[in-house]
Design goal:
The protein is mainly β. The chain has no helices and 11 strands. The strands form 2 sheets. Strands 2, 4, 5, 6, 9, 10 and 11 form a 7-stranded mixed β-sheet that branches. It has a 4-stranded antiparallel β-sheet with strand order 1-3-8-7, with no helix packed on it. A hairpin with a 4-residue loop joins strand 5 and strand 6 (56-58). The radius of gyration is 13 Å and the shape is globular.
C-alpha cells in the first residue's frame, strides 16, 4: 500500500486547509484510514480516523473544527481543517491500518503551519 499526501501549507489563525491522501496498492485489506500529526518535540498523535463504513473518531482538540471523510471510488481520504490554531502546527501524516495483517502504512508527511 502506498499513500500520497498533499494539501499542507501556511495559513493564518482562523483559516482553513484541506489535506488529501490517495491510497494505491492492495487497498482492500485496509479497514481504517486516518491522519496523525507530530509537532516539534512532541509525540505523534491521532488527529482523526475513518473506517471503511465511515465511522469516525477525532482527537478532543480538533472536534468541531476538523472533518475527516473518504471517497472510496477514488481511494482517497480528506481532512478538512477549519478554525485553525497555532497549536495545530505540525507535520501531518496519512495512515492506513490493516486489521487483517496488523500492519500500519504511512504517507510521507505534509507540513501545516498556522501563523500570522
Amino acid at each position: 500500500v502506498q499513500l500520497q499526501a498533499s494539501g499542507g501549507g501556511l495559513v493564518q489563525p482562523g483559516g482553513s486547509l484541506t489535506l488529501s491522501c490517495a491510497a494505491s496498492g492492495i487497498i482492500f485489506r485496509i479497514n481504517v484510514m486516518g491522519w496523525y500529526r507530530q509537532a516539534p518535540g512532541k509525540q505523534r498523535e491521532l488527529v482523526a480516523a475513518i473506517s471503511r463504513n465511515s465511522n469516525t473518531n477525532y482527537a478532543d482538540s480538533v472536534k468541531g473544527r476538523f472533518t475527516i471523510s473518504r471517497d472510496n471510488a477514488k481511494n482517497t481520504v480528506y481532512l478538512q481543517m477549519n478554525s485553525l490554531k497555532p497549536e495545530d502546527t505540525a507535520v501531518y501524516y496519512c495512515n492506513a491500518h490493516s486489521s487483517l495483517d496488523m500492519v500500519d502504512y504511512w504517507g510521507q508527511g505534509t507540513q501545516v503551519t498556522v501563523s500570522s
